[in-house]
Amino acid sequence: MFRRSFYGLYPYKSSMIGLESLTDPSSDWDIIETIGKGTYGKVYKVISKKDGSQAAVKVLDPINDVDEEIEAEYNILRSLSNHPNVVKFFGMFYKSDELSGGQLWLVLELCNGGSVTDLIKGLLMRGKRLEEPIISYILYGALLGLQHLHNNRIIHRDVKGNNILLTTDGGVKLVDFGVSAQLTSARLRRNTSVGTPFWMAPEVIACEQQYDYSYDARCDVWSLGITAIELADGDPPLAEMHPVKALFKIPRNPSPTLRHPEHWCRSFSHFIAQCLIKDFETRPSVTHLLEHPFIKQAHGKDTSLQQQLSVLIREQQDVGNRIKTRHERINTRKTLIIESCPDDDLVNLEVLDEETIIAHLQRRYQELQIYTYVGDILIALNPFQTLNIYSPQFSKLYHGMKRSTNPPHIFATADAAYQSMVTLSKDQCIIISGESGAGKTESAHLIVQHLTFLGKANNRTLREKILQVNPLVEAFGNACTAINDNSSRFGKYLEMKFTPTGAVMGAKISEYLLEKSRVIKQATGEKNFHIFYYIYAGLYHQDNLKKYSESVKLYKEQFDAIQDCFRIIGFTEEEVNSVYRILSAILNTGNIEFTSTSSQHQSDKSEVPDSEALDNAAALLSIGSEELQEALTSHCVVTRGETIIRTNTVDKATDVRDAMSKALYGRLFSWIVNRINALLHAAESGMNVGILDIFGFENFKKNSFEQLCINIANEQIQFYFNQHIFALEQIEYQSEGVDASLVEYEDNRPILDMFLQKPMGLLSLLDEESRFPQATDQTLVDKFQDNLRNKYFWTPKRVELCFGIQHYAGKVLYNVGGFLEKNRDTLPADIVVVHGASVCVCVCLFQYSLMDLLSKMVVGTPHFVRCIKPNDDRQALRFNKERVMVQLRYTGILETVSIRRQGYSHRILIEEFVNRYYYLAFRAHQMPEGSRENAIIILQKAKLDNWVLGKTKVFLKYYHVEQLNLMLREVIARVVLMQAYTKGWLGARRYRKEREKRNNGAIIIQSGSCNPNALPNDSDNRCMYRAQQYIRLVCEGHCILRLLIMSDDLFLQLKLMLYSCLI
What we know:
Layout lengths: L1 E2 L25 E9 L4 E7 L5 E10 L4 H13 L8 E7 L6 E7 L7 H10 L6 H20 L2 E2 L8 E3 L5 E3 L6 E2 L11 E2 L6 H5 L12 H15 L9 H7 L16 H10 L10 H4 L3 H4 L5 H18 L34 H13 L4 E4 L2 E5 L10 H6 L12 H15 L3 E6 L6 H16 L4 H18 E2 L7 E2 L2 E8 L5 E9 L17 H10 L9 H21 L3 H18 L4 E3 L7 E3 L4 H9 L4 H9 E6 L2 E6 L2 H30 L7 E7 L11 H32 L12 H8 L5 H9 L6 H11 L5 E2 L7 E6 L2 E6 L3 H6 L4 H7 L7 H17 L1 E8 L12 H10 L2 H10 L3 E4 H8 L14 H10 L6 E2 L3 E4 L1 H53 L4 H32 L3 H13 L1
Parallel strand pairs: 13-27, 14-23, 14-27
Antiparallel strand pairs: 1-11, 2-3, 3-4, 4-6, 5-6, 7-10, 8-9, 12-13, 15-16, 17-18, 17-23, 19-20, 21-22, 24-25, 25-26, 28-30, 29-30
Helix pairs in contact: 3-5, 5-7, 13-14, 13-33, 14-15, 15-17, 15-21, 16-17, 18-19, 18-21, 22-23, 24-25, 31-32, 33-35, 34-35
């Protein structure tokens, strides 16, 4: 569910229903069974103790008051549920519970037939579909219900299949009025952007950005048209997209239609077309649609069609489909309650063998619970489908809560990093790792989304800019590979900058190891960087593109999205045009072809037979065509101080052309990143949360230099994980004298040494061989064989020019063809002169990039997200046990489960621990010394167990720090509140004194002028009164001081201190 604001949704004058005025449901209703689980609470079947009738009850707990959204639904149900197509309402009840919080019960008519969404999905699973007369009957009932609402000036605003329920006898009922709006004579339109994304009308979405825009009740007509498509196809249009992307597409795309209109009658298609007229001013009303021919076929046939629908419902129930309630808007409280359970964390499993863990993850995955904890580490399985668990409501749910309060979620990891940063004033780092296609990039998007929500910058534009960074750089740095349609071909480290109070104030992005060779050549089944397809579709509209109309249409939309990214982030029109010119120049450069020619004195000379592409590239780069051609087809050699110009062969000219294209693209990408950093630069220093999204481990049929670099980078990330989780922990246990079982793990340091050692490491050998002009691929393999003699390196006997590496993730066979040329990555001096730039890229730069990345990571406290790919076919709900097991093994997850259960994930110096948490056990004005005794007092006062005190540090479980930080935030919040009250009172007191001083002056003047003899007596009286007041204040202050000294309650101390100021 998406919405812009929680306020102003329902203009009824709030009656502020008091919970004490509601009756306890226990005397009227008994729960029979659980029907289902909605987003915000459970739904039960209940039976009346009075007459034995059955009903459905939505239980919302815990709850302390009735907020405006619950009250809005209550008012509508109470006054309008007397219609046959609106669900009946039996009352609202409150069941109090002082310990766990009370429960609010909304008792509604029992609709045992489930929702129309459940019905159509069940039919489609069995290879069937709804017949048109049945669809007409369902839409007829929904229209009658909407007509009843609209006649009473109510807009539903969330019409969809899940909010149209069916009774077992075939009745059609509208439900869920939590976001409905009441129109008045003075206000016939609304302007709040609210609803479920895929069903929202364009005019409703527009209100999110255009605050002077508005809509009327016909927004429900659009939603009903989308629901009609849902009844036919099983899903609404754009259902395969992320909801946020759908919100972007709906206003810009043409009105949606049926997936296969030829399978349906023209009348049905026309009805949908009428509902989905984008201009709501010309869209028909509900009353007009009741007269549409498609709907009129249900008139007079209600009984027979209702019976047919009833038969379908019974068949569905006989098959055994479980009824799932998804009316997500019965409650839209600002705090959502979703139950967590012990199996959310693998550490809590009784048995920790591989089979149990795999079975546990598989069961959760089948239930669409894609996230699981391993202590403070998050496992994320790629669902390969869109899940509705990333809305603003879920962002509110995962805000400042204990990790164990809610089910595992990527938002919880982002919140943990954010809260640690604010509470401890220390930088944080979120490291996302996994294979290519495991979902790392999407996880990074969601983390940025949640951090911008938590940061709540005063500048809304800044938040929007930060959210556009990832889509922009990924358009230039991502590409389609054989195993991933949106594979990151570069490493990205995004640092979000925050103020000390936690408000986001800027961002900085660092890019690593861009795969520039993709610009000139792609493997079979792979594509170039996304941006080339976007710009081709966006800037060129030629007749020969018609046969690719579908893909071109898609790329054109994505091109428009990239244009918006540039605009929102702050690029000028001139800068954007320059980017497009360079991209177009690269495209044209790739079309430059060479032919061989000979002259009287030279043979094997190259030339450009067709100069069109050359001229275009030169013009776009603002250089001369002749200069560019000369730089491509010849080169300068300096011998004994003399410059000799030699011609290039066709192959040499082609290499120069390709090198120029790679250099141009690499420089362009770096410029875009630097420009983003300049536009999002934080004006002041602060703290940051870094998000690492780097390409995953790769193993293709043919692996080259690019895969070697990618896999070495992943080896480095895995080593960092091992060091943080295993090695450093073991060393610290021993040095601190803590008794903890040492966990064995696979240390990949020997592999990294084989790669990075100098001078005999693989990369050093490669760099050395690249400097020999006569070196070949064979000499490179020979050098590797002669110098790399360990178990992690081998050369296959039957495959030439190849070598194998035993990586932490498995064996990979590399083909050395092109290794030397790619490592040299030289750009001829002639090209450098033409462009006025220089390029230097080699293995040394790769090693430097790794060191730079690690230096950023080690500064902050790490939080790990391990992305797992459940299958190689990218199929939803398909869980390949063997593939998952391999990933769990090589990522160290199985060992992590053991060490997180028996180990201590947080170690804090005793002195730092006492300084940080002394508020929890000592008086506000005390400053206890950082001793072991005081640390024990704090731990005992916080009622923690299973902690250990080492020689110099306090060793805590992963859940201990979370609990301590939550308690500390609560105390600090109280202190801030009391400070605010005190400052306000002091200001008021100063004002009163000044006013009293002026009044007294006026009285003295008046009394002196009227009776001069009275002054001495008045002065004596005032002196006596002041003496009495002073004695009283001294006595009261003494009593308060005694209370302060004797009190152990921090909050009571603060209140007494404030009172002492007041008197």
